[in-house]
Amino acid sequence: MTGELVQLAKGSGLAELAVPLLIMAEGERAASRYIEFFTAQVRNPNTRSAYIRAASVFFAWCEQHGLPLTAIQPVHVATYIEQIGRERSAPTVKQHLAAIRMLFDWLVIGQVVPHNPAGAVRGPKHSISTGKTHMPSREEARSLLAAIDTTSLIGLRDRALIGMLLYTFARVSATTAMRVSDYYPVGKRWWVRLHEKGDKEHTIPAHHTLQNWLDAYLEAAAIAEDRKGLLFRSAAGRTGQLTANGMSQADAYRMIQRRAEAGGVATRIGCHSWRARGITAYLENGGLLEHAQQMAAHASARTTKLYDRRGQQITLDEVERITL
């Protein structure tokens, strides 16, 4: 039965899911419960992959130390967390602990283990005021966009995709998942629909520049009537034509790298950089943090604040005051 569940999970895209020997040793019920946690409880694909890796590493560590599942105590989890803390960043360690804690909660509810050994373990303290995402300057952003050849279909597509990231503060995962129908009219204005983390549907009016870029792309691609089709489509080799398949997140990242190089952008940027650039530009122009939070579909204004880089220039100006 366990083997069938694993194969079913892998057939659903969970290729990395494998039941640890430590779990298998507790019988069919424990193995089934382990698989159910990742398939039924953790819905976000990126979080699921991260939690699978975290659980695999932790249980491999337990096996190396001869610990059966039911013998794992808080001291063991704390020792593991302390050890990986010497090699990995605080956010990664906190994610590992969260994965272990949630998994054991699920096993306790399923009566596989009597208690959660990770429940009382505290993770490392970690506090940041500015996110790590590198952001292009206003001049670099303009240079990159100006360097895109918009006489080509691929150029129109790339400009529209970057515009979606910039003007809606969207995550690249939500952008590449968009269908043509996710760009739609409401009265005289056009809106975009994004499917963000946690299966949340987020709608926002299209900025007039984004609307112009999307209209130009849709007209050139002749896909406006294919409402169920993917909006941002992959290219067919070097033909300059599009396929019916959507761009992947990796495709979008590589595209931005090419465009950054062509535009002479020195800052090392990626897809998420445009989210930071958009939020910062909005706040620089008098926008309110709480409105930026709503536009970015953030659960907390603290998260939105991480993308606000207005203070960086102030800091640089102050540093330049140091003269001998």
UniProtKB/TrEMBL annotation:
Coiled coil: none
InterPro entries hit by this protein: CB (IPR044068), DNA_brk_join_enz (IPR011010), Integrase-like_cat_sf (IPR013762), Integrase_catalytic (IPR002104), Integrase_recombinase_N (IPR010998), Integrase_SAM-like_N (IPR004107), Tyrosine_recombinase_XerCD (IPR050090)
KW DNA-binding (keyword) present: yes
Domain Core-binding (CB): 25-108
UniProt keywords, alphabetically: DNA integration, DNA recombination, DNA-binding
GO molecular function annotations of the record: DNA binding
Record domain Tyr recombinase: where: 131-321
Highest taxon of source: Bacteria
DNA-binding listed as a keyword: yes
Any one of the GO BP annotations: DNA integration
Family matches, as PROSITE patterns: CB (PS51900), TYR_RECOMBINASE (PS51898)
PANTHER family in the record: INTEGRASE_RECOMBINASE PROTEIN MJ0367-RELATED, PHAGE INTEGRASE-RELATED
Name this polypeptide is given: Integrase
